[in-house]
Design goal:
six-stranded antiparallel sheet, 57% helix, ABC transporter ATP-binding protein, transmembrane, P-loop_NTPase, transmembrane helix
Length: 739
Amino acid sequence: MEQTQHVSGPGTKVTPALIRLYAALAAARFHGLDLDIRDFAAEPGEASPSPASLARWLNEQGAVAKGMRLRWRYLVRMGNTPPVVLMFRDGSAGLMIASDPERGVVWLRDPLGGDGDTPVAVDEVRLSQVWTGDVLLVKRRRDESEADARFDLLWFAKMVLREKKILRDIALASVVLSILQIFPALIVMQVIDRVINYHSMATLISMIGFVIILSFYEILITYGRRELSLVLSSRLDARISLHAFNRLLALPLEFYEREQTGEILGRFMAIFKVRDFLTGQLMTTFLDLFTLIVVLPILFMLSATMAWMTLAGAGCIGLIVILFLPIVTRVMSRQIRAEMKRSSVLYESIAGIRTVKTLALEPTRREEWDRVTADVVRWKLAAGRTAAWPQTLIMPFDTFINRGVILVGAYLVLTNHSNLSGGTLAGFMLLGGRVAAPLVGLAKLMEAFNEVTVSLGEAGAVLNQPTETKALTTGMRPVIKGALSFVNINFSYPGSTTKALKDVNFEIPAGTMLGLVGRSGSGKSTITRLLQGVSRNYLGYLRLDGVDLREINLTHLRRSFGVVLQDNFLFRGTIMDNITAGRPGLTIEDAIRAARLAGAEEFIERMPAGYDTWIEEGSTNISGGQRQRLAIARAVISDPKLMILDEATSALDPESEALVNANLKRIGKGRTMVIVSHRLSSLVDCDQIAVMDHGELVDIAPHAVLLERCEIYRTLWLQQNRHLNNTASQDVEPYGEGE
């Protein structure tokens, strides 16, 4: 019950929905998964979480969960299973921890109780009065999940093979269609050899009936196979898209900071070329191979000579494709990279369109676009010309298969070198076309495979980067109070030869308002990055309430913080949506409380739609001060015990800055505040102010003490307050931030 109050707030009523959530948590905890109830986002319109919603949440957190409906006779036989969550009619749930089929009872435990609580035995009659028949089964994922596996062809193959039932049905339909496609050729043989030669009307009528029946079944099975293929491709598309996007979200912030956004998007979109290949050309070619397997023996029965000629022609086509494969690969990879570079320029131009317009940079961007487009056109032309050579060399063999073989067959008929008849020759050509097409398609498949390999490599350059998945789903979840301790902290950014932080040591108790000041590049923002877990490869010990920061679950850590940056991003949507972005289950009352605390309530209420006011892309319809106050409301709505403000007021006008600073005094009560600011006047009321210089902690003390003993702080203060003390400032040598 203590945990319930911590999550839901003191005095919060224990609802059936809350009991159901704790039942799922208890089942996950049995498997060593310590989850946070605040990570659950309820589905719209659900009074109590459904088994499907709970399963989705648990699967996202690293478990394997499944909701299903069971009858009593199956439930009572689940004797040696982990805890099973039983859904009750009132919206709550119970935990079944054991069963006895001989006695006809199951043992239930209260989800809000402890593991040592005595379970209650319940029989079928009593359980049926409260149980809906739905259960939630939970287990720990022990093998490497698809979410963590490397993106390569093996990953895609496993993804496809998961749909065994659909693949089996498609294969069966393809075999039946391949057999049915033999009959048209046989019918042509019979029509030429018997109907036409002998003028048999009865045979013709029977053939017509036979053709109608075959056509009906062929149309029906073709439609069924097309429908199955569509379902398969749709499922793969959804699964690949979900996993790829989840992997993108799991990448650390450091990766996005060092890579161009346009190139990341271009490489990410390359994954869909692989998807199109798997669900399109590859599947079609393999389906056509069933025809080859069935029809090829028939061809050898009709004429071994012509069958060997058909295979030889297709083999030459495949050989030409293989020989040109490395050359086409190199040129095509250059083309794909050039297209990604062009996409990057396009993204930057659109994302920075305000800067482009205000600085009249259209000619510069147009010149850059012309350059990258010329590069794309040059490599596209080179790729087309390179691919044209094998296509040109293939044409004679393709022509021979489609036209030359019939001429050879006609020669064999005229010279009586075989038992070929006119009908047999016509039937062979019909079947031969069906054999040649899969063989030629298989050869061309290798060419397409080359492009897919390049695309997969580009996508892998993004999606196979190390992720934060383990840190986001594992680790401790302590109750955050806000005490911070830095012990011998050293940190260097990747690729840098100088340290961003050098032997930083300080300690502050919970509830302290800490200011961070110093010149640009002194390490202020680096400290906030370490606190947020953005960078974890530091040396030394950074403790939060006595717990090493690297041991804390990353999701829990970031949800426990409130962060306000200099330039905060607001999503396209309503004010309500943006304030509750991190907690979608919160109500309008929670949003109003947060807005009042951040000083945003007064301007929200003046808007025509209030909290339903729509914020445009780029927040163009609200001022900078309003955007900052909405960002503060978004940060405080979860009542964090530690808040970080990184230059949160530097871009505001004096009136907005004064208003935000006044609100910060109220917000800071009862929580730890870490405030980074160049404006020392906004830090005067801080309990402690840490002065940073070149990555080192120069001094830490209250404002008055620093003015007396810290030369760097005193110099910065006098520079920023010349209007208050002109005489003193004249004797001070300027101390610019860029020095």
